[in-house]
Amino acid sequence: MIDARLITLRVFARCGTIGATAELTGYSPSAVSAQLRELQRVLGMQLLTKDGRGVRLTATGRFLVAGSDPLIAQWESLRAAAMEAGDQVQPHFGIGGFSSAAAQLLAPLAATLRSTRPELEVQVLEADPARCFDLLVAERIDLAVIVAMQSDSYGEDDPRFEQTVLLDDPLDVIIPGNHPLASRSSVTLDELASEPWITEAAGSTYHSLFTAAFTAVGVTPRIAHEAVEWETLIAFVGAGLGVGLLPRLAPLHGADNVVRLRITGKGKPARRIVAAVRRGSITSPLIQESLGILQANADRILTARLEEEDH
Amino acid sequence: MIDARLITLRVFARCGTIGATAELTGYSPSAVSAQLRELQRVLGMQLLTKDGRGVRLTATGRFLVAGSDPLIAQWESLRAAAMEAGDQVQPHFGIGGFSSAAAQLLAPLAATLRSTRPELEVQVLEADPARCFDLLVAERIDLAVIVAMQSDSYGEDDPRFEQTVLLDDPLDVIIPGNHPLASRSSVTLDELASEPWITEAAGSTYHSLFTAAFTAVGVTPRIAHEAVEWETLIAFVGAGLGVGLLPRLAPLHGADNVVRLRITGKGKPARRIVAAVRRGSITSPLIQESLGILQANADRILTARLEEEDH
DNA sequence: GATAACCATGCAAAATAGGTGCATGATCGA
DNA sequence: TCGATCATGCACCTATTTTGCATGGTTATC
């Protein structure tokens, strides 16, 4: 119920360029430019200034954007309370999450909602955590599932969002099936210290988890290969190129020559998966229901994962 | 920056009928109907129900309207703060007031603003106090000048408005120029107890002031005639039909055979004139400036009135 | 109990706001 | 200097919104 042009301005405050704002909101750059100009005209405020080949928020613009945070939150809160009090159903629901969450958690959630609320139009967007926050601001999605990142530009206390922990997803070790330890059900990271490791490129979300896990046990692993997708990582391991860490949420789905081992000992790495919503909307019945479904699914998957892969 | 359809819903909550909402907002009834239907569709809430030949808010609708009060206030507050912080100028400014206020206070205010802020488009609407509040809700005007009414449906602490006292406008007595007391400069109400009085129809704003003035001194005046406009009242007095009470703010502008006398004694009736704005907007520089101009003008008129009419 | 007044709404047509795509100009990095 | 990037203006188009009138249902009046 907040004017779309103000939302656009808020997205611009995140992106810094008209083009990126257009991409994120789904408009064309011309439309964003026109919207922001119109916003300035209606409000009688100068919100943007030319800055080199781009534009930049004025002090007034920054002030307005910052001040609009509680406004958005209050609207979300009101909307949620009205939905709850009136037992109403909203027509559209957008959810977003990073790759493994999208596949493992969001897809089942969408399926469940589709059956329990047939009239609800659910849209799922796969996007990395940073983009998920942007999509929340842009109101393209209403709920995001992300991995908690300490180095994130979105703090826990950001006035725009509310976050709740969904689960701590433990990292397992995957090793080739013909590896000497393959018959074990669990290992310690020490036992694999001398193995060639496969990880993601330095700087990625996963890589920081990787290093954190080994610094916890005081071991410096040798990084032999790099992969981006879990699929690739699993294939590398299956080909005997090395060993790797795989979140328990990520499925092996019958990969050849790969076994998953639980990690024991003092280094028990895990990635924290949290759900994020726009502040104020947390009490919405639809979001509450979704959080419940997500958590139930997560628990179910985590407990079932090891059993099903151990035949 | 709040969606126009929510504003329309808020106006409807005041009026109760689509037609009245249309009249107040400036839309056609069909447009209002379509807007409210669209609002329900977008929010996924049922806000209206059929009720006889009209429609009525549902519980959800009432909840939403009540809850939107602080939302509007917060936006107004943010807007005002941004205007102040950024030294910006808004393009449009609507002011409204009842007849004598419109002529005596709003017209000069508009003229002043026109010269000090040439780029500002000022619109003046004459409307009775109740309608002024509705126009504020409908965002047709940003500032209203009204007479404070205890019997008003808009309390002093209404979450939608903020009110500041502009002035206490004393009521003077006007009598025919050939009346025995015409040479006096002031009278008490007791001295005029036996005169035939001219007032407005019972139930009007002015009438309650009239009766309050006389109950304060314990006299029951004889009401001989009724008039609606000050013009008419003055003409009646000039024709020798009786005497009347005239706010000092209302000008005689050279009426024949009429003199204005100050009232002394314990019964010193006055009408309280207050400025009302949407809650949150009181800190807006434009509104602050306007309030200052209004108050200065009011003081100037009040002090000048008696002198100029005493030649 | 019939008639008139009132109220909301559906529909077709018109108006208008808003969006797209391309071209342009300006700026920055190589 | 050249190419890349970015914002914006313009012409065209789309889609939303509004209007005016007609309709159906409801209440008040006589």
What does this molecule look like?
Chain A has 311 residues and is α/β, with parallel strands linked by helices. Chain A has two domains: 1-88, Winged helix-like DNA-binding domain superfamily/Winged helix DNA-binding domain (Arc Repressor Mutant, subunit A); 90-311, D-Maltodextrin-Binding Protein, domain 2, CATH 3.40.190. Chain A contains nine helices and twelve strands. In chain A, strands 3, 4, 5, 6, 7, 8, 9, 10, 11 and 12 form a ten-stranded mixed β-sheet that branches. A two-stranded antiparallel sheet of chain A has the order 1-2. In chain A, helix 2 (18-25) crosses helix 3. Chain A starts with a helix and ends with a helix. The model of chain A has no long low-confidence stretch (mean pLDDT 91). Chains A and B meet through helix 3 and helix 4 of A and helix 3 and helix 4 of B. Chain A binds a DNA duplex (30 and 30 nucleotides) through residues 17-19, 27-35, 37-38, 50, 52-55.
